[in-house]
Amino acid sequence: MKPHPLPKTVAPIPDELLSSWLSRLAAANYCDDAELLAHLKIDIAHGTALDFSVDAVAVEKIANAARVDPDVVRSLTFPAMTPREASLTAQMPFQHCLQCSREGLLLRHWRRAWAFDCQVCRTRLVQTLGQPGEEQISEKLIYRARCGAGMLEHAARSRGPKQLRRAMRAVTFAMSLKTFRGDPSFALQNPRSEVRLFCLAAIAAARSRPLAKAAIVSSGIDDYARVALLRAFDKEPRLLAAVDHIAQRRARSAGPMTAESRN
Ligand SMILES: [Zn+2]
């Protein structure tokens, strides 16, 4: 049985998520999300479950109730993704645009790990678990993280896996420095800005200078950095050997000077 059409309908905006539009539909009809889903006879707890997969029956019910074409409903969900794209697309919101959120919007592109500025209003996206003092984040870090985000997008969309591998290695290294554990793709989708921005900035740093060199130059090869490097490069022994080689050369060239200064 088809649910009755809703008294009021609203037009979805480009790139809006299905769950966002359903919430606005609910508000326009003076009910909440759960009541709307019950009216539509769609048996799920949250509309967000529909953003990634919505079956033909549910599409039909929604289209009929909102008086729109079924294709419009389908266009508000994520299309089929490659595994690489999927790993960099958050299942749940981790960042948002304060300006667009005020209008009750949730946009698809915010879910991408590389999204940095809102494509609708150009405001910088902020993490959902952002601290009140977030505005104190240094401009330099934001600038670098924005560069890294652009590189991540480029890497994610490139054909070969090489660029993305390099970017993820930088993220793994950044995670080690922040003692943040887990999957690098989750670090990039972290709802806390200190983790995400630092990891994105690391992608930019790895590009401008080879990562291993950058690590040694910036922090010295003390035990802590060595552990971080081991973690970042554990699957690439050749690279780790190169890191060691650079470190030894540096130690040798620094050695006599240290000895001289002692004499
Ligand atoms: Zn916006």
From TrEMBL:
<protein>
    <recommendedName>
        <fullName>TniQ domain-containing protein</fullName>
    </recommendedName>
</protein>
<dbReference type="InterPro" id="IPR009492">
    <property type="entry name" value="TniQ"/>
</dbReference>
<feature type="domain" description="TniQ">
    <location>
        <begin position="9"/>
        <end position="121"/>
    </location>
</feature>
<dbReference type="Pfam" id="PF06527">
    <property type="entry name" value="TniQ"/>
</dbReference>
